[in-house]
Design brief:
Blueprint (H helix, E strand, L loop, with lengths): L13 E5 L10 H19 L4 E2 L1 E2 L6 H10 L3 H18 L5 E2 L6 H16 L3 E11 L4 E3 L18 E10 L5 H6 L6 H15 L4 E7 L2 H4 L4 E6 L10 E5 L14 E6 L7 E6 L11 E5 L7 H13 L3 E5 L6 E2 L1 E2 L9 E4 L3 E4 L14 H5 L9 H5 L2 H4 E2 L9 E3 L3 E2 L1 H4 L3 H5 L17 E7 L6 H14 L9 E7 L2 E8 L2 E3 L1 H4 L6 E6 L10 H8 L1 H10 L7 E3 L2 H26 L10 H27 L4 H17 L9 H14 L4 H13 L5 H6 L21 E9 L5 E10 L8 H7 L7 E7 L3 E6 L13 E2 L1
Parallel strand pairs: 1-2, 1-22, 3-4, 10-12, 22-23, 24-27, 28-31
Antiparallel strand pairs: 5-6, 5-7, 7-15, 8-9, 8-14, 10-13, 11-12, 16-21, 17-18, 17-20, 19-20, 24-25, 24-26, 28-29, 29-32, 30-31
GO molecular function: ATP binding; leucine-tRNA ligase activity
Catalytic activity: tRNA(Leu) + L-leucine + ATP = L-leucyl-tRNA(Leu) + AMP + diphosphate
GO biological process, one term: leucyl-tRNA aminoacylation
Length: 791
Amino acid sequence: MNVVAKHQTTTNTKYVLSMFPYPSGQLHLGHTRIYTTADLLFKTSYLCGENVVNPMGFDSFGLPAENAARINNKNPFVWTISNIEQMKSQLKNLGYHFHWRESTSDPSYYRWTQWLFTELFKSGLAYQGISQVNWDPIDCTVLADEQVDSEGKSWRSGALVEKRFHKQWFIKTNAFANDLYAGEDIIDTGHWNFILAHQRWWIQKPSGYLFYLTMDEDKSGLDNILQIFTPYPELFCTSKTFIGISKQHWLSNGKKHREIVGQIKNPFLTDKKMDIRLIEDANFPPSTQATLFIAREMHPDETKRTEVLDRARSIGLGGYYTSRSYRDWLISRQRFWGTPIPIVHCSNCGPVPVDDQDLPIQLPDIEYSKISSYSSNDISSPLKNFAPNDWLNVKCPKCKTYDAIRETDTCDTFFDSSWYFLRYFTEPSDTQPFDKIRLRPVDCYIGGKEHSALHLFYARFITHFLRSKGYLEFREPFHTLLMQAIVKARTYKLNGKYLTAEEAKDRKDVEVTFEKMSKSKGTGVDPDLLVQQYSSDAVRWTILSVGNPESERLWDSEEKEFGPTFVFFHRLLLTIEEYLAIKSGQSKIKPLDSLKFDETLKDFDRSTDQHVFNVLYSICSSYQIRNGTSSIHKLVNLLRANIRNNIVHTKEYERALASLIIMISPFVPCFASECWQAFTSQTKENECSKLYGFDYDKNVFEQKWPKIIDPNFLYIVRFTYRNENGREEEKKRIKIPLKLLQSWSEKEIRNLFTSINEEIEWIEIVKNSSIVVRLKNQSTVIPMHEGFVDV
């Protein structure tokens, strides 16, 4: 399908985006399900006349490439590029149309990842702090808490994780925790409900304030940030207050209960310091393992609390309203194959960000034979041990002396992917990370539910941050989320050991279940092999026509999966062949009597309208795609039921058959193209094509989405409001006839409801499909006018 965006992307361009893959070199069925859904939405929107973009790239930094480089003594860049080319070929074989963009390991991309880090650093939101970290002794890197499973093992290597204290780079995600928890700018909460609930469960409800105090190096021997969480910031205003830390805190090593482990300057009292004591029997905030204590009872003081918070924010010490359990975002990784953190450590100035004009700081050339044989029990990056001296030792950007060394940790890949949706909307630029003027939120973001608490949360944080700095006009990055469930396959187990289907054949003592597809379980399915055996269109239709995206997809035997697909293909081809034979006079029909004919034709046309609407609504509004394929089957049944009577000679029948072929083209583009070519080979421009807007001289991809003919066809308008918990609730539904919807514009909808215009918060319109009106108040009375139908 040779389609492109009609012109440069603008704020009116529809933005479809699927989560980009890691270039492992091999697609799996989970990828296929996500990208087929995105391609379907893109192609359907294009046929509807929208300017739409569907970009794709690769999340190409990360451990697998680095491990492959170590094992094979091969540059990870070479390994990555080879895999990218292989996966691009696989994606092309499935008939997807993408607007290709950079990968995260391209210097033209990570230049702006580094720019983003420096912006956070300059804003006081990137810092180094000592914390307990998860050390993977096999991959020799630090893992985030979310990358450690319930058994304390690494999610990737399977190694038992070791707990250590280490100085790391963090991002102060707590600065926006309250806003992210509230989600006030999220519009489409219908698809956001699960994700927002998961994120709220993860960060927990804000209940206090987080402060970042600097340790006195001459007293403690450590130059580090000490985080304090307290519900009562006013405690800073009394000299009787001390800081209590738990046994799990990095300062507690070898200390006893109530023993003073150090002192720290109280920034809210002149020339006062606070003791830091180990307290063994207190309920500490999990995020900091440190809080404020006072020797005597003290009542809350809102005035002093406000004074403390104002001062904390003015001098960069935090004072963020957040939860007691949520930790800042740890982004340091001791890896080579990652975005270099653009910081120089100067003996005079401390950590200094690299100047924008000197970005990107590219990865140096190193000898991979050294890395292959290197292993260390120390938490350190390969860059520190193997980078050339002329890369490591540099001039300080601030004081211009040469007594400085580069930061050798690299960014976690979640940092790389936290902003790619901003970059991908427009063509890549060397002069800016994204185009603020033309940029808009993603209309539909498609991916896996498993990313709800990490990638999606960090993407929201970055967008909130950039909005606060004036780089964006919006705070929430994704309008609609279409989170797909996993694909499962039938597995066979005997005494805890997985068997292949062949090994389990005819055995009655085997446990049979459906589990997530896995090569190690013998249940992995290669989409390439399916395409070779059954065709790309058969794979696309099969993956979409069974189960809606948010439901788990239970993959059965190939016979059961593809059998119904080829029955559908056969029935449609048979219908076209019989139609052409009848039109050419080669086959006979049995005419209906005039009364029966009129009734049947009226019902036929009404049913065609309904099926055209159902298919579009299921793809672009409800995202319940299986409902769309069901309507396509029903339209085939309608055509088959009337292929042998005189309805087949009407323009209404021709319209229904042409509409069917156009509507399946986003699902099965190659098959639809063949069907259209056969259909139009004996069908010339006529009354039907002029009336319904078909152009038989053009291919199926140049047609317009079929029109609904009945001016009294009713469209549902949903009125919603946001309840006290921030959840979208439906207040009322009414139906409006097509004749009142000429432009499908917000202005047109507001003109229909002029009496409540002041009560409307926003209007969401999917042209020819759905209308949602969110009200500011639940009590608003919906006006009813002539032609409106109360549902």
